[in-house]
User: Fold these one by one.
Assistant:
Number 1:
Amino acid sequence: MAMSLSATWTIDELDRLPDDGNRYELLDGELLVTPAPSDVHQTVVDWLSAQLWPFVLAHGLGRVQSPRAVIQTDRSQLEPDLMVRPWAPPRGWKTAPIPILVVEVLSASTRQRDLGPKRRFYMEYGVAEYWVVNRETRAIHQITPDGEATCDATLLWKPPTISATLEIDVKALFAAIK
């Protein structure tokens, strides 16, 4: 099927793209294409997911979602590496609750957009916290609407709706991918 070559893409056009192993996303009408993640990239996502799931379940925060779960608006459809979204009955991505945490793992092909346009989008959309995992610096950049910090030892995550705090051993994460 013919696709528009215009600078502005739609969700319908995005949905008609082939399933060819690439990740296709839309950010304010701009098509973003990313190759499949490396095994190291996916190991980071899996490791963080394993840390988040027990905490999220124990405190009734919702669910941890990995790739193929999306954040959708009229002109954007992003597929974060990992996110925590409050529980709600499934009724479509466009009406899904705003995530309380979004995680992106930097790679050469995503660095600029993860630190720039995606960061802006997530904060404007109302995401409570955004983590950017930087394998080069062996740190996690923790971003909230109130500020940011870089964690290279212990990351503390305190979701907005509970009093508990999750401690993530950042050194252990990077030791797991040596």
Number 2:
Amino acid sequence: MLNEMEQRALEMLLAGEDARLAVLRAQLNKAVVTHRELSGVGFFTYLSVPTHLPRMRGSPRLVIGDVEADVEGLKHPAGFLLFVIEGALSLLECFIVDDRWPETATLRRAYYVHPPARGKRSLVETKERDLAWALGDTR
């Protein structure tokens, strides 16, 4: 079962009007957490999707990472990456730049980020999700 922080991050990472995301949302409803790992500077939540569910088409590997969050006990925002392997949800990673993951981490606020301008590597908070950037669409 997903905890509150995982659930919120995944809901945001899978939000939007896109057929690929719709398939992944359907998977999330039936996905099972196989195990979790604390890394000291974040965590990994491994997911398993039943084989009978449809898979996302068009990309053997996709990483969605446009969600950050303010977390109680951290000075800097936490970032989230969702890994989709062979069309199925596989792994949610939470990473931080602080020295250590807090013992009692509580999500205060989650939000979308994107580059402030084309070609920039830094990310800034955005009021509207840049879905094309989040999904790596360069068209």
Number 3:
Amino acid sequence: MRELIGLDVLADEPIRNYTTFKIGGPAKFFVKVQNKDELKKSLAAALELKLNYWILGGGSNVLVSDKGFDGLVIKLADGALDISENEVKVFAGHSLALLIREVIGKNLGGLEFAANIPGTIGGAIYGNAGAYGKGVGDLVEKIEVLEITASGVVEKTFSPAECEFKYRDSIFKKHPEWIVAEIVLNLPTDENAQSKLDEIQKEWESRKAKQPWNFPSAGCTFKNLIYTEELAKYKEWEIKGKLPAGKFIEEAGLKGMKIGGAQVSELHANFIINLGDATADDVMQLISLVKTKVRDEFNVQLEEEVQYVGF
């Protein structure tokens, strides 16, 4: 595999070391890539050797099985970035927070709303990450994708419309054979972008005060609900067209609920935290309990924002 990829490949590498939850068993094989060519070679090697593969970004929003992953984990690392006037071309493994600070340094704006969202730009595209009613997909010019086919790995280009961006969603969630490799953004010039760094820091301090950043977690466990007339009885909870999942969990009396080493945060009910020794099974059981209690009490079905791997 090292010969096929041309990079160092690790065996039995603990995946928990690369996730914000600090949960997950070993990867049978593990490699870090920093550009589209390295990613393409890694995928081609997995296909040639008939191995399962999984693309790991920043490690947030994922829950990895205690058994780990029986195949090749391809870790996307910070890599290629090219800024030319208003066009930004970036490798999918680039840190979203770092990218935003770099483009602000070039007097480019538009992405400040996502400055304190953890993870990579590739993961942000995959899930159309956002905040305050905005999504990263709003600023996409095109997406370079590696498609897994019967004959090998093929490069494709997607327009914004073809990406089908929606609230916390994109077409890539429906097509695991399409791997986001590079992103081209078109960002507006903003001569006041530098001054927004102070606002970003204040927003980060506000988030830290409201969310349990002192414990490992995957971020928000459940998607907020899109407000509709069918949910009019909860109108007073509505914020910018959404009903906070954490509000339902809190009103169901589930703050502080524990199973094993996993707990519904007492600070923010939409966070399930790892108290130090949580297993993936603990978290799965707690997620199931929360969904059942909320459904029974409010007739509302919560949907996970967290992705499951290795189950």
